[in-house]
Amino acid sequence: MKKMNKKEFKQCFSRRLAEKFAMEVSDASPSELYQTLGSLMTSAYSQDWRQTWQDYRDAEQKQSYYFSIEFLPGKMLKSNLLNMGWLETVEAGLLELGIQLDDLAEIEPDMALGNGGLGRLASCFMDSIASTGLPGNGNGIRYEYGLFKQRFVDNYQVELPDEWLQKGNLWEVRKESKAVNVRLGGNVYLSSDEMGNLTPHYQDGMVVRAVPYDTGMVGYQNNIVNTMRLWSVEIPAEEEGNYRSVEARRTVEDLTSVLYPDDSNEAGRRLRLSQEYFFVSAGVQSILRYYKELKQPIDKISQYVAIHINDTHPAMCVAEFMRLLIDEENVSWERAWNLTQKVMSYTNHTIMAEALEKWSIPMMKSVCPRIYQIIEEIDRRFVAEMTGVQSFDLIQRTRIIQNDQVHMAHLAIIGSHSTNGVAKLHSDLLKSVVLHDFYELYPARFNNKTNGIAMRRWTQLANPSMSKVLDETIGKTWRKTPGDLRLLLNYENDDQVLNNLAAAKLTNKKRLAAYIQENCGVEVNPHAIFDVQIKRLHAYKRQLLNLLHIIKLYLELKENPDLPIEPRVFIFGAKAAPSYHYAKSIIKVINETASLINNDDSIHNKLKIVFLENYNVSLAERIIPAADVSEQISLASKEASGTSNMKLMLNGAVTIATLDGANVEIRDAVGDDNIAIFGLTEEEVYQYYENKTYHAAAIYEQDNVVRRVIDTLIDGTIPNIHSEGQEIFDSLIKYNDEYFVLRDFEAYCIAQMSIDKAYKYQRRWLQISLRNIANAGRFSSDHTVQRYAEDIWQIEPVFAHKDDRGVTKH
Ligand code: NBY
């Protein structure tokens, strides 16, 4: 990538502005300036983008394709600048032109084509795959509308559409010439020739055009630009005549209109399945088209292509790949199956039963009839192969089609060579409980890949003040090699360094406090403990446990306003699924409790609650650097990994956590003294399930503190929550508290007291915080994707073909 000095940049920038808008800098709006900068950047990296692609092709390198129904990159302006090596020059150059880079960054809408952890992980991986020089691509859907915008009205969550494409998208390139057709619906009949070869004949149904929009994934200062390919639906030119009515057109356009449509009704579910098949078919077709250009025999495809199935949503990759090999390439079933298994791999992200996808047979037959036929045949052969080898019961439990439903996880496991979980504990649970039957069948397929995070975004971009302290203390190598953060341990007794870190944290807290003041009208004390829980709102993540502890503190302060506790600001960020009634009730109750507590002068500002609207990647970048305490309090065994836990630790927050997901590995990294662990273990949770001995009502009866706290939900202490308070009360007492909130309550309160106590000894607190930063390097997603590359995809970095200036060797 061309390096520029400040002067050159200023010239280029002014010239580009004149070309694009016929304007002077002083006349341009932030939006015009943003467009200008973006266009300068894309033209600068497009050369490398093409070159990267050519290098992969010339070297005939094996490539991986990460199929994910969600990507959550957030804003790309600054991360691209950083990765291009332009950030400092541009920031300084703009400043001389009287422009704040951050004002331009604000213009860019968050690209929010994902719900939460799973989508954000996919984007961290895209960054790391490019940054480690791996030949890997993303494949997904270009939703017209991203994840809804959250607003609070009367303290209730209200969802607004996210029209992120309204002003265009700088980073994408429409590649009309790479479009493919996808067939949906209709019927299919098989005819057989004298050799017994089957040919499918299609009747009715519709053919839609899948048009790719490619976005460059710029690697960190390594001249590599990979591709994230997102598919958008269009009506094929030759079919225009069949789509005269607005309604007919809409059924097609709806296909890539919204992320994660409501799946609580028949029509919504159908749309969701169609989306899945749409991006799977388009992606697999384009991979095969590329492979054929290489002119290699089809039997070698697994030496050139790896397809990754991110959760079950793209599991139909297995059947689509089979379809193309058998129907289009005339490969025999046995050979095709062998290749498919070698090409495919699958990651599981949850043990929650309701998130394990199943589709009814009639639905699948009507959306993708040929795919259903192939799945039926995979299932039939699986049963035949296992019969006589495995017990009848085991086969029935593991087959793909059961009780008129297609089990997508089973398809993904049977049709691939690798199944991984996303943290050690989670992967162990897959083997021992959730997917135990499959582990019996295919022990060698199971492995762990603990999640990771894109370190650069979560330090250099989000937390420049801490980054500066790190540079001054341990040098700059940590920016490329996060493991070098360990050097910080040499300074754990250095008061100067501890104070510098404290000052950086305070800067970030003041900045967040200003944002809170502006957006919530709540004044918070930047010297208070900033206690943060940011993640999707879900019962198993137990935002309720956090709230009950806050209520307990409030009641205690009401009784004794001089209670010697450190002032605390409890900060929440969370969206609830639009149809998830219970989660929305929790939001309402937190918000009402916030109104009550924040306006109660009698507690001397010792407690504040702030629920920030519309939690997204950009807001995360604001909150995380300002956090003192990281809440990771899911019921043990339920959180597959978590990734905000890693981001918060990296930014020096101290974790209060159950032994769940990657919290276990964070504990191992920092040691028991630098984390507050509490609550039931995964074994204890499973024991309760086995013995059926959990009685939440008994805790309520016997524990006066619990009773007092829970009663505030229904006794009018918290105003305006008549039905929501009752609903939550009932979930705990009448329906026996599915996530053991009451069981863990006392232990949680004790752990919170230890946090309060630790914070009082500032020096020790700062040391704990330092040790968290120092030990976070192992959670870099650079490291995680390298494990995927070596163990699962068998792909190699392209650096092998470049000299150290990034120039390709021929
Ligand atoms: O994936 C999350 C896990 O909860 C978290 O522990 C983990 O760190 C992260 C990355 O591995 N899972 C997640 O975000 N899941 C979803 O967003 C999701 C999306 C769709 C559906 C289910 C879950 N679905 O049923 O359609």
UniProtKB/TrEMBL annotation:
Gene3D superfamilies: Glycogen Phosphorylase B
Reported cofactor(s): pyridoxal 5'-phosphate
CDD domains: GT35_Glycogen_Phosphorylase (cd04300)
SUPFAM superfamilies from the UniProt entry: UDP-Glycosyltransferase/glycogen phosphorylase
EC main group: transferase
InterPro entries: Glycg_phsphrylas (IPR011833), Glyco_trans_35 (IPR000811), Pyridoxal_P_attach_site (IPR035090)
Alphabetized UniProt keyword annotations: Allosteric enzyme, Carbohydrate metabolism, Glycosyltransferase, Pyridoxal phosphate, Transferase
GO terms, biological process: glycogen catabolic process
Recorded catalytic activity of this chain's protein: [(1->4)-alpha-D-glucosyl](n) + phosphate = [(1->4)-alpha-D-glucosyl](n-1) + alpha-D-glucose 1-phosphate
GO MF annotations in UniProt: glycogen phosphorylase activity; pyridoxal phosphate binding
PANTHER family with a match to the protein in the record: GLYCOGEN PHOSPHORYLASE, GLYCOGEN PHOSPHORYLASE, LIVER FORM
Function: Allosteric enzyme that catalyzes the rate-limiting step in glycogen catabolism, the phosphorolytic cleavage of glycogen to produce glucose-1-phosphate, and plays a central role in maintaining cellular and organismal glucose homeostasis.
Protein name: Alpha-1,4 glucan phosphorylase
UniProt source species: Enterococcus hermanniensis
